[in-house]
Amino acid sequence: MAGSGHIPEATVARLPLYLRALDEVAPSGQVTVSSEELADLSGVNAAKVRKDLSYLGTYGTRGVGYELDYLKFEIGRALGLAHTWPVVVCGLGNLGRALANHTGFTDAGFPVAAAVDTDLDKIGTTIDGVPVFAPAELGAVVSEFEIAIGVIATPASAAQAVADALVGAGVKSIMSFAPTVLVVPDDVELRAVDLATELQILGFHLHRSIENAET
Amino acid sequence: MAGSGHIPEATVARLPLYLRALDEVAPSGQVTVSSEELADLSGVNAAKVRKDLSYLGTYGTRGVGYELDYLKFEIGRALGLAHTWPVVVCGLGNLGRALANHTGFTDAGFPVAAAVDTDLDKIGTTIDGVPVFAPAELGAVVSEFEIAIGVIATPASAAQAVADALVGAGVKSIMSFAPTVLVVPDDVELRAVDLATELQILGFHLHRSIENAET
DNA sequence: ACGACTTTGTGCACGGCTTCACAATCACAA
DNA sequence: TTGTGATTGTGAAGCCGTGCACAAAGTCGT
Ligand SMILES: NC(=O)c1ccc[n+]([C@@H]2O[C@H](COP(=O)([O-])OP(=O)(O)OC[C@H]3O[C@@H](n4cnc5c(N)ncnc54)[C@H](O)[C@@H]3O)[C@@H](O)[C@H]2O)c1
Ligand SMILES: NC(=O)c1ccc[n+]([C@@H]2O[C@H](COP(=O)([O-])OP(=O)(O)OC[C@H]3O[C@@H](n4cnc5c(N)ncnc54)[C@H](O)[C@@H]3O)[C@@H](O)[C@H]2O)c1
Predict the structure, then answer these.
(1) Can you give B173-208 as a three-state secondary structure string?
(2) Quick check: A199 and B102 CB within 8 A?
(3) CB neighbours of residue B79 within 10 Å
(4) Topology (CATH) of B9-79
(5) Residue of A195, A169, A184, A189 whose CA lies nearest to A88
(6) Does the beta carbon of A74 lie inside 6 Å of ligand 1?
(7) pTM of the prediction?
(8) What is the DSSP string of B47-103?
(9) What H or E segment, with its residue span, contains residue B160?
């Protein structure tokens, strides 16, 4: 079964974890991995690992496990890892600079090729090897650097306008750090990373455990 | 029904969104909000909003909507927002500094009270108003500042050791940015924010839409 | 060649989340 | 007081993801 059919979203979200786990095993010279081992390394259930991999059409060998190199290749292919997707960072403030300076993204195939900011002092300069442009130049930047992904790291008040500009420039994938609801067309993939919300969820659990302790 | 019973995790994750949406409405002088309006502002389905709010035991008025101030109070109470939860940032590199310098966390009730780092040049100094300590001092720091949440922004290779140290110091909530699997006891709440994985998920969709276009 | 052992692939049942649809309920005007 | 219009609260159905459990299928030692 399985094969190149539809891959569930939950599975897609775990594929990068498997890939990372495999990279940790590789140096050991090991040739195969069992679903159990992969499960331990990636922090998920072994049955889930097997079901996930079955969606790729990747077959392991019963009694042995999965061939390491082949599995890495298959997961990488499913994720489209052969391609590199250049990123533009919008808003080079505290967070934007940290992102631009991060080498891990380039290593994963997502080089930060350019940035845009409204700050006149930054426009025209190169920060951490990343050239900075004015927002008005976004369209040209997207074509020039073949930008595939836009990262929004501006204040929340500017986020929707930046998102609109990215969409207008033809960008189909956006990752936003701005704590606000963004509206984008259906064919644009939006992932919102909301750190304050993450903290509030932690706060909720802290709060509740205290309440329960008092009871 | 409902009341102070168990609140589903999915609902908890949306409560901060509602709170943010309500803060946007407040200045308008409006007294009540309908579930529909709240749904638009927070980007979720109206029925979901009503069901979520019903878990809080917060009752709106049929034909009218929810009283704004009362709703804000109730959601805030459910999230434990009365309390402030001091945070320690572990690893003051690119990302750690951005986090430490971010005012939004303090505003939301999560002040960055202290940081730890192995860099001898940083230990003993104050960066962006945050005092920096050596990892060995973590236990003392946690008691001294009544730390409730630990944020891990060290290289992945050090993340598990830092997590262990946080757990050892009695911290029950951890937010990690390190791209690695962390193991913590059951009574410790761990939220892993993996930006490279987020990008890879976007990459997957880009990859697939290209594939489909070719077919 | 064969049996013992290992590990995969998946059918199935379960639980949680989402969404629809609508009766119940309230405000308010006449 | 009664009718009208609006909006909530929730039962029920459907969907998706999880995890168990086990037959199928391979390896390996003898
Ligand atoms: N710093 C953090 O650790 C952190 C944490 C969580 C969330 N965030 C969110 O990330 C976003 C950025 O945070 P920050 O701390 O880097 O803010 P910042 O104020 O340091 O930086 C914002 C940058 O965006 C630029 N900018 C403003 N309007 C712009 C526009 N229209 N187009 C392009 N650039 C524009 C500014 O010039 C500035 O350089 C905010 O929405 C913030 O809430 C930040
Ligand atoms: N910078 C980013 O935008 C970004 C994006 C995604 C993920 N991350 C992840 O976040 C983490 C931090 O990234 P960064 O760019 O800030 O790295 P960095 O190298 O700039 O900073 C790491 C900091 O941690 C300190 N450190 C090292 N070992 C430590 C220990 N045992 N205890 C305390 N402090 C220690 C170092 O002295 C340094 O200051 C990494 O795991 C990285 O993969 C970063």
Answers:
(1) EEEECCCCCCCCCCCCEEEECCHHHHHHHHHHHHHH
(2) no
(3) 24
(4) Arc Repressor Mutant, subunit A (1.10.10)
(5) A169
(6) no
(7) 0.96
(8) HHHHHHHHHTT---BTTTBEEHHHHHHHHHHHTTTTS---EEEE--SHHHHHHHT-H
(9) helix B156-168
- What kind of architecture, by CATH, is found in domain A87-186? 3-Layer(aba) Sandwich (3.40)
Domain boundaries, chain A: 9-79, 87-186
3-class DSSP assignment, residue A182: coil
- A59 Cβ contact partners less than 8 Å away, ≥ 6 residues apart: none
The residue among A4, A104, A181 whose CA lies nearest residue B199 is A104
Contact A149 B108 (CB under 8 A): no
**Beta strands A149-152; A173-176: pairing state:** parallel
Q: Does residue A96 sit in helix, strand or coil?
A: helix
Give the closest nucleotide to B48 (alpha carbon vs C1'). Answer: C18
Whole-number Å distance between alpha carbons of B178 and B153? 6
Output the tens digit of pLDDT for each of chain A's 215 residues: 445 578 999 999 999 999 999 998 877 788 999 999 999 999 999 999 999 999 998 789 999 999 999 999 999 999 999 899 999 999 999 999 999 999 999 999 999 999 999 999 999 999 999 999 999 999 999 999 999 999 999 999 999 999 999 999 999 999 999 999 999 999 999 999 999 999 999 999 999 998 877 76
Ligand with minimal distance to A175 CA: 1
Residue A31 CB-density burial (10 A; 0-12 exposed, 13-18 middle, 19+ buried): exposed
How far is the C-alpha of A77 from the C-alpha of A71, rounded, in Å? 10
Q: Best substitution site from B94, B119, B122 to test ligand 2's pocket, by max atoms within 8 Å of Cβ? A: B94
Residues A40-65 as b/e (b if ≥16 CB within 10 A, e otherwise) read ebbebeeeebbebbebbebebeeeeb
Instruction: For residue B184, count other CB atoms closer than 10 A to its CB.
Output: 17
